[in-house]
Amino acid sequence: MSDARLEAAITRRFGAIARIENFEVATLGGSSRTILFDLVDGATRRRLVSRQESYQAADSPFLSVDHQYRAMRTAFELGLPVPEPVFEYDTADDMGQGFVTAFVAGDTMPKRIQAEVEKSGQTESLVRNFGTLLAKLHTLPPREFDFLAQRPDSVDALNAQRDRYDRYGQIRPAIEFGLRWLERRRPALSGAPILLHGDYRLGNFMIKDGAVAGLLDWECAHLGDPVEDIGWLFLRSWRFGRNNLEVAGLTHRKTFIDAYVAAGGAEPDPDSILWWQAFGFVRWAILNLMQADGHVRGERRGLVFAACGRNTALVEYDLMMLLTGRAA
Amino acid sequence: MTTPFPTMDDLLLTVRDFLNDIRGELSPERRYQAQVAAFLLDVARREKLSTPPAEAIADLTAFRDAIRAGKFDAEEAVLAEKLLMLSAAEVEIVRPDLLAANPPAGVLS
């Protein structure tokens, strides 16, 4: 099995001698199509990943493919462990919007990673790795990512959520409460806006040998307060059942924060972490509404998107557990 | 009127069990989709059998307008407790296993 258009796109860039082998479709029903393949160019063989967006709403909260690619390329060139961007599809490829990156070996499955690093005694070192890596990302020169400055999430992250929420036409009391709670307690920005990954969590780390081999999924990158990424990482939603362990269900936040600060990140204020956790739940709930909205309106129907609508309740519950002081 | 035979719940349960039975025969992508489909049938079954919680908000539009106007600001803590219970009622339908493992009891000290 292969893909004639992908082969043509490869031939256009690498010459007629280049061919594709070991073609494998990896997508599990999301909004993008992911293909793994070997690029064989003479005696050289390289495993690559093609990612095509199959759907992008006009009011999508996600970065355009062009900006995703640019953010990844810039981060890669500045030394972050990002899968090397190889090329972006253009209109002549007839592949829609998408790009090709290097393949990074490892595992992204959260529960498997939790079990593996626990078994190998690497839990603490992996969480320190998360802290060191995020500090490195947060200290990249923001001017290199100026192209993200006009993203609604960069301009005013909270207003961006409310605007999206209002577009989906649902009235969810817990989200309304969360938005009001956040508006009444807006923290001062802890410094000039810096690059944020925007989805820094277990599931978006390619883990190999107990360390991060690749930081994936840059579709939410924007500029803002560094604590936004930290609050997001600490959400219960990414603990995968190990609710008492705040960082990815692996360990407590001190391990992460100590490593983050030691690597040059600013010490996050606990009140600010709480605010950004509440923000994260509101944002995650609204993202679930967005997925269900595409399903209900018929733009992108599917089992997973239908399930996302009901998943909203789980996120709202976690939000209210946080805001009533029952959970951290 | 007599109860249809088999009942709607039985129909949903039967299809769910069928999906679970065939999962092992499917490709990884289809296996995942069958799992999600079975999950959604379970949600539909529980929702059909549920009754609205006593705390349910009757007029959502009025609630939205009031909370945005700050009319609940003075009773924020009371409203938060009510919304926690409403959220818990929804989780009871969507993922009762998660609610059982993480009930809304006790406040962190």
In short:
The complex is a heterodimer of chains A (about 325) and B (about 110). Chain A is an alpha+beta fold.
Describe the structure.
The complex is a heterodimer of chains A (328) and B (109). Chain A is an alpha+beta fold. Chain A folds into two domains: 4-102, Phosphorylase Kinase, domain 1 (2-Layer Sandwich); 110-323, Aminoglycoside phosphotransferase (APH), C-terminal lobe (Aminoglycoside 3'-phosphotransferase, Chain: A, domain 2). Helices cover 44% and strands 16% of the residues of chain A. Chain A is built from eleven helices and nine strands. Chain A has helices at 4-14, 65-77, 110-119, 123-138, 152-155, 157-168, 173-183, 226-233, 253-262, 270-296, 303-323, and strands spanning 19-25, 32-41, 44-53, 85-88, 98-102, 194-196, 205-208, 211-215, 222-224. In chain A, the strands form three sheets. Chain A has a five-stranded antiparallel β-sheet with strand order 1-2-3-5-4. Chain A has a two-stranded antiparallel ribbon with strand order 6-9. Chain A has a two-stranded antiparallel sheet with strand order 7-8. In chain A, helix 4 crosses helix 9 (253-262). The model of chain A has no long low-confidence stretch (mean pLDDT 93). By secondary structure, chain B is mainly α. Chain B contains five helices and no strands. In chain B, helix 1 (8-22) runs antiparallel to helix 2. The longest helix of chain B has 22 residues, at 28-49. Chain B starts with 7 loop residues before the first helix and ends in an 8-residue tail after the last helix. At the A-B interface, helix 7 and helix 11 of A face helix 2, helix 3, helix 4 and helix 5 of B.
